[in-house]
Amino acid sequence: MCAAITTDRFALRRLRVDDAPTITNLVNDPKIYRMVARIPPHQTVAQSAEWISKHPARRDRNAAHIFAIEQDGELIGIVGAERDELQLPFEIGYWLAPASWGKGIMTEAAGALIQWLRDRGERGFVSGYLADNPASGRVLEKLQFMKADRRPIFCMGRGERVDHFDMARVG
């Protein structure tokens, strides 16, 4: 199992427990937690560390592959693939520090992760975005995802149901 995936501009590496303070600091920005369904507002370092500590067991079961996006030695975001059952497609999820938005970083990072998964034999992927976050939708469209459904989902960061587009990619 690889420890890192590299692109021309950055590395995707496995998370470490010592990343918890940086992750916590970043995700506590409302520009992030309000746009990602599963990040609570006011996340603590302990919550981040607990989340990271679950990754090795899930990785060993081929249920989750979560990577830090590291540029010039600095963690600037997260990209990952998770699933509850081995027969299900991986769900691609991500977030990026606002200072790094608009530079094509997430398209490159998620594309590298998907290619790594494809090289391991995976072919189906799902993802989605909150309807008021069209930039995330553009990332997925560039990665050949297609809209599959529109439905409300609960967003922890907002504490309410929010309109969401489900997307899928085959191949």
Automatic annotation (TrEMBL):
UniProt KW keywords: Acyltransferase, Transferase
Molecular-function annotations in GO: acyltransferase activity, transferring groups other than amino-acyl groups
Record flagged with keyword Transferase: yes
Residue intervals of the N-acetyltransferase domain: 10-171
Entry similarity comment: Belongs to the acetyltransferase family. RimJ subfamily.
The protein's name: Acetyltransferase
